[in-house]
Amino acid sequence: MAKETTANGETTKPPPTPSPLRNSKFFQANLRILVTGGAGFIGSHLVDKLMENEKNEVIVADNFFTGSKDNLRKWIGHPRFELIRHDVTEPLLVEVDQIYHLACPASPIFYKYNPVKTIKTNVIGTLNMLGLAKRVGARILLTSTSEVYGDPLEHPQKEEYWGNVNPIGVRSCYDEGKRVAETLMFDYHRQHGLEIRIARIFNTYGPRMNIDDGRVVSNFIAQALRGESLTVQAPGTQTRSFCYVSDMVDGLIRLMGGDNTGPINIGNPGEFTMMELAETVKELIDPSVEVKIVENTPDDPRQRKPDITKAKQLLGWEPKVILREGLPLMEEDFRLRLGVQKK
Ligand SMILES: O=c1ccn([C@@H]2O[C@H](COP(=O)(O)OP(=O)(O)O[C@H]3OC[C@@H](O)[C@H](O)[C@H]3O)[C@@H](O)[C@H]2O)c(=O)[nH]1
């Protein structure tokens, strides 16, 4: 390789040119896509969708803390698919063109179980994935969360809202962790010119959620199918907006493919109190089950609903599946896994 001489007489080497193979693959639009957390609930549905495109090669990195190989069983052994047991808090070296960075436990009971590990996953894990993106020139999408708005004082939540977050609360490992992850994304973008995308994901539900995941939709459906009382955490008037997983995946893929960095809210703006959700699940699955009020956990946000104007305008995206259509699809999956027949 040619040597260059600097003003003070030292010789330096110019940087290596990219391998011709990488360029030829790139220009064939043959995308190599890394999905961290790809064995999880949203991750595995995203992998299904990405694998539908025959030009895509998909690599999943997952430590299987909340994800499961079972979610990916149809792809194991496929020539365009690779599964790596890997924890994102350790560096990863792979040649890819796009990174969907989802890895992190998302259910409050799981992310609070080992809070130090959760914040490491968000901070060190995101740094590692940004380092990888920088090294290989990949575009990177972070799945952030509606939890960055904390217990919001503005309703519905627009992306411009800075949030109301308790920095020392039991949820901080997750909500502050994701806030730092967003900061890191923008700092790499501004400092190193990385191509970034940030999705703020609102509550999502659908088949493959862990049955004892602890989140409200999976809890209520499993409880109704087992004939147990539905546990509404006090006061029951707190609200959430629930997005069906296929809509979520469609939003993430549009965001990755588009020109806007985000952050962009991806969620279903239909808003329900937890009491209304319990009544709906009861009516759809088993009107004879009871609803009981149980103790809540600290810092539970009282209301949450996305403003999706940006997603509509910039991504041409809006959710299609309403709650009453999505719940039965999830019920079907839970019936199969729990072995409960329809009466
Ligand atoms: O059995 C239950 C479980 C939960 N709940 C209530 O349901 C509401 C939703 O709780 P979940 O645990 O499902 O989820 P949260 O909205 O608290 O957090 C979620 O926010 C968005 C995503 O980033 C994450 O998936 C998750 O952190 C809370 O008000 C909670 O108190 C019940 O009433 N009963």
UniProtKB/TrEMBL annotation:
Q: Which PANTHER family does this entry report, sorted A to Z?
A: UDP-GLUCURONATE DECARBOXYLASE, UDP-GLUCURONIC ACID DECARBOXYLASE-RELATED
Biological process annotations from GO: D-xylose metabolic process
* Residue span(s) of domain NAD(P)-binding: 34-328
Give the molecular function GO annotations: NAD+ binding; UDP-glucuronate decarboxylase activity
Q: Tell me the function of this protein.
A: Catalyzes the NAD-dependent decarboxylation of UDP-glucuronic acid to UDP-xylose. Necessary for the biosynthesis of the core tetrasaccharide in glycosaminoglycan biosynthesis.
Which cofactors go with this protein? Answer: NAD(+)
Give the pathway annotation.
Answer: Nucleotide-sugar biosynthesis; UDP-alpha-D-xylose biosynthesis; UDP-alpha-D-xylose from UDP-alpha-D-glucuronate: step 1/1
The name on file for this protein is UDP-glucuronate decarboxylase
InterPro entries linked to this entry: NAD(P)-bd_dom (IPR016040), NAD(P)-bd_dom_sf (IPR036291), UXS-like (IPR044516)
According to the record, the residues making up region (Disordered) are 1-22
Q: Where is the composition biased (Polar residues)?
A: 1-11
Q: Which CDD domains match?
A: UGD_SDR_e
Instruction: Give the record's family classification.
Output: Belongs to the NAD(P)-dependent epimerase/dehydratase family. UDP-glucuronic acid decarboxylase subfamily.
Subcellular location, record wording: Cytoplasm
What's in the keyword line of the UniProt record? Answer: Cytoplasm, Decarboxylase, Lyase, NAD
Instruction: Name the gene.
Output: UXS5
